[in-house]
Inverse folding.
């Protein structure tokens, strides 16, 4: 008697150690002279989008993806040229490796560290396909073929790259699910800045963008005066789409804490 096939997971696995160890800092926005460069910025942003897209297609047990350029273009909402450059960036930096010996049947992509890392992050892939959000999240492509939420991270904007880096870090540092833990990510602005190379004054606007994209919720932590005008804040972040909720015993009166935080003065 044949086994009943398991239903497809609503989330996808992603290696997390590289992000926990500061790997996101290599996805920069500045040229060799330290100046913000849109080409560098867009290259980093596209590479991270493609990395997430690849992980959502990877086989859970092996981290192997069999795919084609048209599929990746539709999945990530990017052109073929951008996909090609992004794959090269990811391969050159050790995040993937490729077997393109059978081009007609598509490429085999291996996500590095898939089996080596003890733990892993969860990408809420169904949320990226179907998650509730603003009207411009809607796509003419069938929702199961396009990660529509990725479109919110737009090119030529530093905030988009900063927000995506922080989002990936929040995925990587998330606590284990209930009942082993609360499934939240608890981290300070200082630590976010340290692990992503996002300027500390830019963390709050990036968090607000993720909130507005309906990718996260958060509860504000206590804060104390810092440098006379800034604040050292440790928040609890909830990743949307993973069926995690803040503690049921918390008062509904605290709902105002979900509102975006005001940007710190730079």
């Amino acid at each position: 008697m044949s086994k009943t096939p398991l239903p497809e997971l609503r989330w996808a696995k992603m290696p997390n150690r590289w992000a926990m160890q500061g790997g996101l800092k290599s996805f920069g926005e500045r040229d060799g002279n330290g100046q913000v460069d849109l080409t560098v910025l867009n290259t980093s942003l596209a590479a991270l989008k493609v990395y997430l897209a690849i992980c959502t297609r990877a086989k859970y047990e092996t981290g192997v993806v069999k795919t084609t350029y048209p599929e990746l273009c539709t999945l990530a909402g990017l052109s073929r040229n951008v996909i090609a450059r992004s794959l090269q960036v990811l391969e050159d930096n050790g995040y993937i490796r490729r077997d393109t010996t059978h081009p007609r049947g598509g490429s085999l992509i291996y996500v590095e560290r898939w089996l080596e890392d003890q733990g892993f992050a969860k990408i809420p892939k169904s949320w990226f396909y179907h998650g509730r959000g603003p009207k411009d999240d809607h796509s003419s492509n069938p929702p199961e073929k396009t990660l529509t939420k990725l479109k919110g991270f737009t090119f030529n904007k530093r905030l988009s790259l900063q927000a995506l880096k922080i989002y990936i870090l929040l995925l990587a540092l998330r606590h284990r699910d209930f009942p082993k833990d609360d499934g939240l990510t608890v981290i300070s602005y200082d630590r976010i800045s340290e692990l992503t190379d996002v300027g500390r004054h830019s963390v709050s606007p990036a968090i607000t963008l993720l909130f507005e994209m309906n990718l996260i919720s958060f509860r504000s932590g206590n804060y104390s005066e810092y440098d006379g005008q800034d604040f050292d804040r440790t928040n609890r972040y909830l990743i949307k789409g993973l069926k995690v909720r803040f503690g049921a015993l918390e008062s509904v009166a605290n709902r105002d804490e979900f509102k975006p935080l005001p940007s710190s003065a730079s």
Remarks:
- The first strand starts at residue 12 and ends at 14.
